[in-house]
Design brief:
five-stranded antiparallel sheet; 208 residues; mainly beta
């Protein structure tokens, strides 16, 4: 991520990489790996899409073309004491196409970019099939540890902005493991405890 003095100068180059075990598919079909992403709150905006054809031999490590975000496309993740923790909704997946024609590839790219594309359905354009996909949330930020010019001590920068670290320890508050079994009860408990740390103004926590 390269961060400039204003929003218009921000840019980030992102590259999707994943390991896939290629399933059995008709020999004439084309397998296409993809990454699509957009800001979490921008549900009506099109996705940015990166795609690449996949080698058909067994397991493969897939590296997709670089996606470059600039200006209003890029929303940086900030700790709550400096701004908003903007995140992106991302999906990685594989589509099988019966025809490898350029027209079909463009149609699939347009479909993946569309806000209305439903990945929970296995059907894709050009009689293609969505073989598998996963969804995740990601943030974009830079983190640098430098020497402060005035104090000569360590200084932490987030997106090239100095961060005043207000930290503390979080020692296990559930010694009898009553809330450690997973499920909604655990999530509510730990969410409430993290919320108290945030309300107290902490922006860094060491878990012990």
């Amino acid at each position: 991520v390269e961060v400039g003095p204003g929003d218009a100068a921000h840019s980030a180059s992102l590259q999707g990489e994943f390991l896939v075990h290629l399933p059995a598919a008709p020999p004439q079909s084309l397998l296409v790996g993809f990454l699509r992403m957009r800001p979490e709150e921008a549900e009506d905006q099109p996705f940015l899409v990166s795609r690449a054809g996949l080698d058909r031999a067994g397991s493969a490590e897939v590296t997709l073309p670089v996606l470059t975000l600039r200006g209003t496309q890029l929303r940086l993740w900030w700790p709550h004491s400096l701004g908003q923790p903007a995140r992106y909704s991302c999906q990685l997946g594989v589509v099988a196409l019966p025809s490898p024609s350029p027209a079909c590839l463009e149609e699939v790219s347009a479909w993946l970019a569309s806000p209305s594309a439903d990945l929970t359905m296995s059907a894709a354009p050009c009689e293609g099939v969505l073989l598998d996909w996963l969804s995740l949330a990601a943030g974009v930020r830079t983190v640098q540890l430098q020497q402060h010019p005035a104090t000569q001590g360590p200084a932490l920068q987030i997106n090239e902005q100095l961060l005043f670290v207000a930290g503390g320890n979080w020692i296990a508050s559930d010694q009898l493991l009553r809330f450690s079994g997973g499920g909604e009860r655990s999530r509510e408990r730990y969410s409430a405890e993290v919320g108290l740390l945030r309300a107290a103004g902490l922006n860094m926590v060491r878990v012990r």
